[in-house]
Amino acid sequence: MKIGVVVFPGSNCDHDAWYAMSHNLGQDVSLLWHDSPSVGGVDAVILPGGFSYGDYLRCGAIAKFSPVITAVKRFAAEGGPVLGICNGFQILVECGLLEGALIRNVGQRFVCKTVSTRVETTDSPFTHLAKQGEVLRLPVAHGEGCFIAEEPVLDRLESEDRVAIRYLENPNGSMRGIAGILNEGRNVLGMMPHPERAADPLMGNTDGLVMLTSLIDFAPNDYAAAGSSAFSKS
Amino acid sequence: MSTLAPEAIAAHQLTLPEYDKILSLLGREPTLTELGIFSVMWSEHCSYKSSRIHLKKLPTQSKHVLQGPGENAGIIDIGDNVAIAFKIESHNHPSFIEPFQGAATGVGGILRDIFTMGARPIAVMDAIRFGRLDDARTGARNRRILQGVVSGIAHYGNCFGVPTVGGECVFEACYDGNPLVNVFALGVFKHNEIFYGKATGIGNPVIYVGAKTGRDGIHGASMASAEFTEESKQKRPNVQVGDPFMEKLLLEACLEAMKTGAIVGIQDMGAAGLTCSTCEMGSRAETGVEIDLKFVPQRESGMTPYEIMLSESQERMLLVAEKGREEEVLAVFRKWGLDAVIIGVVTDDGMLRVKNHGDVVAEISNRALADEAPLYNRPYTTPLRVAPLDGPTIRSNDLGADLKALLGSGDLSNKRWIWEQYDYQVRTNTLAGPGAEAAMVRIKDTETSIAMSLDGNGRYCALDPREGTKLIVAECCRNLSTVGALPLAATNNLNFGNPERPEIMAQLVESIEGLAEACRFFETPITGGNVSLYNETLGTPIFPTPVIGMVGTLPTGLPMPLAFQAEGRRIFLLGGLRPGGDREFGSSQYAKVILDRLWGTPPKLDMYYEKRVQSAVRELVRDGLVDSAHDLGDGGLAVALAEASFGPQGIGADIRLDSDRSQELVLFEESPSRILVSTSNPEAVRAAAAKNSVEALEIGATLKARVVIRNRTETWIDSSVGDLYSVWNNALEHLLLNPASVVNA
Predict the structure, then answer these.
(1) Bridge partners of A91?
(2) Chain A residues touching residue B424 (CB < 8 angstroms)
(3) Which residue among A113, B48, B150, B623 has its CA within the 20 to 30 Å range from the CA of B293?
(4) Spatial contact of A38 and A80, defined as CB atoms under 8 Å apart
(5) Are the Cβ atoms of A111 and B421 closer than 8 angstroms?
(6) Which of the residues in chain B have pLDDT under 50?
(7) CA of B211 to nearest chain A CA: how many angstroms apart?
(8) Which residues of B are catalytic, by number?
(9) Which DSSP letter does residue B72 get?
(10) What is the pLDDT of residues A96-137, one digit of tens each?
(11) For A179, how many CA atoms within 13 A lie in the half-sphere containing its CB?
(12) What digits encode the pLDDT tens for the residues A14-69?
């Protein structure tokens, strides 16, 4: 599978996503510079963690105006899978591909730790190889990861089965313990935890692999004609 | 040219003999700009004028060392054509005046020292020291300083994208008015990717890159070379403001520009900014550097040449490119959206010539500035004696309560409140992060990992700077050996008081000599470092506080268990009990926390024995013959047993001792050269000990959920692991957020 990892000025987990996908999982990974007008024929896009454009103003607020985000939006509209991790999630929320907002952690401090999360749906390109309710120990590292949205939005996310991962230990005060959500088309996932940091046996944690291999195993052609339910592998 | 008033000379912290030397070097009176340039280059911070003759005693070479002191960072070879660059730097004074920015720019500065050599930073550690958090008078300020320093480190390192993988945090009254912030950084590169700070090639263009120059940080280097007084707060504008995003761009752009092959020399603008980078690059290459300030990107209007030359604005680099290929370099910086401007040229006359719109405003020999700073052999007597030789009679009522008090003290408590604010995983190399015996990062695409340890001990050094410093080196080496690594080289940060006081100068001299002796013995040369003097507030000096950063290598993929792994394993004390005396007990954490006293001497160190213990544990860990290994340090045997019980399984220990000595000493003394191991293979432990001629004393077995320590028929301690863990785990948060409850407890 051909995977594009977007590089903004200030991205700093771009290399980690690239390494996990290319070295740990043997995929063909290219880096997409922030001013690229297209995503260049990749099968999936990863928006990595970091501090895009210094995260000035608001996390992800400047990244949403970059040329590559226009291209990513087009790619997503055509059904292409997009995984936003940490700062990538913040950017997806800022640019309107996902709902809600990510604000300063409850406690006001940056938090780096490994927390237990639960897979809430397997109906997505990112979780179809996981078991429903599977507990994944995933690293988080962020200052602004508290997910908030209005109650009706939260209710809709739940009723449409679009909460992909939930914290069992909530590190940031996110409403309803939400750690990652899908868009309506189920091909865009934003999540604060870092699966790419839990993808190498040497690091002592491989719980993130199931999400990355789900994405790889998701055949590129599947989404071209896919309706939302097509993501379930039965 | 008008004659400079004596007040102007004094205001630049130059003595009259120093000024006379300037007159003779120039053959005329300096301009104000030149006076400013001399004052920063000849400041203690930049010139090491009080310490240099003693620093020459340090060993600096080995078969692994590619670059010793004198460059931006030391470099050692780790095999497979891979090298690492590392160094430590202090930011003590700025962190007191403005904790957040002071600490943040400390991180920024040391990171630039690493990547200016071409290495990509892959690890940071911090040794930070503060006054007591629960002190009625100073506690509130100390808590505020700690919180500012920690968030400053987090802010800069996290955004830049370098993991903060370890360090230490210590509380002591002597740091009340003078916190210490020492930042260590390490980077990795291939041998053919190394760059030096040399302005070679007559006619080559000199290029300024990075942030614009503002009025921030003017005279920071001189400020860092003076004692604190009541007026120090007014020096806040001297503290620079950091922008980690800019630094991240600068890193990527510099590494990419280096790949063009068109860069011949590069140096960051740190202390003394444009002044230091120009004259040092020229001096190293024995060339001249001529610049015109009109080309320097400026953030503010109306800046004088004096201000531009002395500004310490952050995130700036100076580089020299190959003539005719400058466009290749400039294009890379344009891609990253950074200013990159040709501001001058390398000349053949050895002079730093600074022009402002064509008019010469300073003209000084590079050598005079960088290499001919005054060198002082300051008088020294015997080290300041801070405590009596003999201590009180000790009789504990409750050893279990003592253990809990120690685990709940600031120094020994779990520091997770601090390190959970640091991204310790970014770049996915961290094999062992904060809280481990030694931090460990793998080097991708090789079979090698780097282990590192950062340690200091002001109490030991206050009682005996020479022996205390040797103990710190031994402990660093022991930490590395305990995870299976071979110590290779070290960097040092010497934090001391005012060297113009002979009893303080004596502390510095003895500490350096102890450092030299231990580093020579353990074959860990010093490849660079930093000296921070004048750490005094209102005439009260800090404890002499050398901090050592030690690095070593080990094969990637070794198990590195710190905590007990399973029940029913045999527990050995490699090195044995090694009993110390009453006087040595005065330097212990027990004396500090339980008795609130300091007396006597540091523990005795037998370096030969120490080295053999280290060999034994290294062999056992590398061959996978032990389940866990944890060295005895602060708090001695009892604290080590508790810490080894804090693994995820909560496995404790059942210890049976047979000693005639006092219970407090046996449990809490801090004799070096001891490592606690658990194993299912006691014969292997005995064999490794015998082979290395050290004792392997079997003291008990692992046990579920309790720590029990008996001596003959007496039970000294019987505690649940859960209780001990909870005290240890929550103490720092209580101290920070609710200190009153701790004081009254």
Answers:
(1) none
(2) 112
(3) B48
(4) no
(5) yes
(6) 1-2, 742-745
(7) 14
(8) 45, 91
(9) S
(10) 999 999 999 999 999 999 999 999 999 999 999 999 999 999
(11) 28
(12) 999 999 999 999 999 999 999 999 999 999 999 999 999 999 989 999 999 999 99
Residue with tokens 């006597």: B600
User: For residue B400, what are the contacts with CB-CB under 8 A and spacing of at least 6?
Assistant: B717, B718, B719
* DSSP class per residue in A5-48: EEE-TTB-SHHHHHHIIIIIT--EEEEEETT-SS-TT-SEEEE-
Cβ–Cβ below 8 Å for A110 and B423: yes
Residue whose pair of structure tokens reads 């005693």 in the numeric block: B57
Residue A230 has pLDDT above 70, yes or no: no
- CB spacing of B245 vs A204 below 8 angstroms: no
Contact B161 A12 (CB under 8 A): yes
| Cβ contacts of A199 on chain B, cutoff 8 Å | 428
- Overall number of domains in chain A: 1
Which of A95, A120, A144, A194 is catalytic? The answer is A194
Angle, alpha carbons A159-A161-A162 (nearest 5°): 110
Q: What residues of A are in contact with residue B420 (Cβ under 8 Å)?
A: 109, 111-113
A59 part of the active site: no
Q: At B547, phi and psi to the nearest 5?
A: -120, 130
Nearest 5°: the CA angle B225, B5, B3 is 120
Cβ of A202 within 8 Å of Cβ of B246? The answer is no
The pTM is what?
Answer: 0.95
Write out pLDDT tens, residues A174-214. 999 999 999 999 999 999 999 999 999 999 999 999 999 99
What CATH number corresponds to the domain at position A36? 3.40.50.880
Residue-wise DSSP of chain A: -EEEEEE-TTB-SHHHHHHIIIIIT--EEEEEETT-SS-TT-SEEEE--B-GGGG-SSTTTTGGGSHHHHHHHHHHHTT--EEEETHHHHHHHHTTSS-SEEEPPTTSS-EEEEEEEEE----STTTTTSPTT-EEEEEEEESS-EEE--HHHHHHHHHTT-EEEEESS-SS--GGGEEEEE-TTS-EEEESS-GGGS-BGGGTB-TTHHHHHHHHHS-GGGGTT--GGGG---
> Which token pair is A134?
């599977």
Give residue for tokens 């037998």: B606
Distance CA B111, CA B134 (A): 33
Task: Report the residue from A15, A109, A110 with minimal CB separation from B427.
Answer: A15
- A197–B425 CB contact, under 8 Å: yes
The residue range of the domain holding A220 is 2-231
The sheet carrying B205-210 orders its strands as B263-268, B316-321, B205-210, B340-347, B288-292, B351-356, B359-365
Of A19, A55, A109, the CB nearest to B421: A109
| Per annotation, catalytic residue among A13, A59, A86, A95 | A86
Query: Helix B16-26 crosses helix B32-41 at what angle (to 10 degrees)?
Result: 120
ipTM: 0.95
Q: Which of B164, B426, B729 to mutate to test the interface with A (most CBs of A within 10 A)?
A: B426
b (16+ CB within 10 A) / e for B657-680: beeeebbbbbbbbbbbbbbbbbbe
Determine whether the interchain pair A13/B424 forms a contact, defined as Cβ–Cβ distance below 8 Å: no
Give the C-alpha distances (Å, rounded to integers) separating B504 from B31, B187, B220, B227, B442.
35, 34, 23, 13, 41
